[in-house]
Specification:
A 5-stranded mixed sheet has the order 2-1-5-3-4, covered by helices on one side. A hairpin with a 2-residue loop joins strand 1 (19-25) and strand 2. The protein has helices spanning 9-13, 40-47, 103-110, 120-133, 139-146, 157-168, and strands at 19-25, 28-34, 66-69, 72-75, 87-90. The protein is built from 6 helices and 5 strands; from the N terminus they run H-E-E-H-E-E-E-H-H-H-H. It is globular, with a radius of gyration of 17 Å. Helix 4 packs across helix 5. Residues 19-95 form the 2Fe-2S ferredoxin-type domain. Keywords: 2Fe-2S, Iron, Iron-sulfur, Metal-binding, Oxidoreductase. It comes from Aquibacillus rhizosphaerae.
């Protein structure tokens, strides 16, 4: 190794064997060559500039990187590039409808479901997953659905109000 060049841990894990993958991101078909050890969260943020998906803990405990793969909520920090071949991925950028906010985003805004906003994209993805899967979730189901997402600012009051508003308005998209 060249003593004059610093190498990051991620760079040291890269392989020389790149793979071609096809996927759909927010309803846009993509085909690209990736190192199979690249994490989905890094691919989204660095390759596609979809920075709404946040990096926080990096070990799947905070939910800041939550996205949907084939309709299922996942932590993008735990998914490798080779695992998303032929997948359909929805990020927070793909939730909004045209130029207007999605009703879940609007509820978070109007009910004070965010403070610093760092956890908000992951929270919104978790709520979207919940309302897509459960017509009229109970308080326990709401808590369970949000249990993989950490917020260090709001105390969850506004978040819960936003979720209940979405449910009351029967926003199932």
């Amino acid at each position: 190794m060249d003593q004059g060049k610093a190498v990051s841990v991620q760079d040291s894990l890269k392989t020389d064997t790149k793979k071609w993958i096809q996927l759909k991101i927010n309803n846009h078909e993509k085909k690209l060559e990736v190192d199979p050890t690249t994490r989905l969260v890094d691919l989204l943020r660095n390759e596609f500039k979809l920075t709404g998906t946040k990096i926080s803990c990096g070990i799947g405990r905070c939910g800041a990187c939550s996205v949907m793969i084939n309709g299922s909520l996942v932590n993008a920090c735990l998914v490798m590039a080779y695992q998303i071949n032929n997948a359909s991925i929805t990020t927070i950028e793909g939730v909004a409808e045209d130029s207007s906010l999605h009703p879940i985003q609007q509820a978070f805004l109007e009910e004070g479901g965010f403070q610093c906003g760092y956890c908000t994209p992951g929270m919104i993805m978790a709520v979207k997953s919940l309302v897509n899967e459960t017509l009229n979730p109970t308080d326990e189901q709401i808590q369970l659905a949000l249990s993989g997402n950490l917020c260090r600012c709001t105390g969850y009051g506004g978040i819960i109000r936003a979720v209940k508003r979405v449910i009351a308005e029967r926003v199932i998209i």
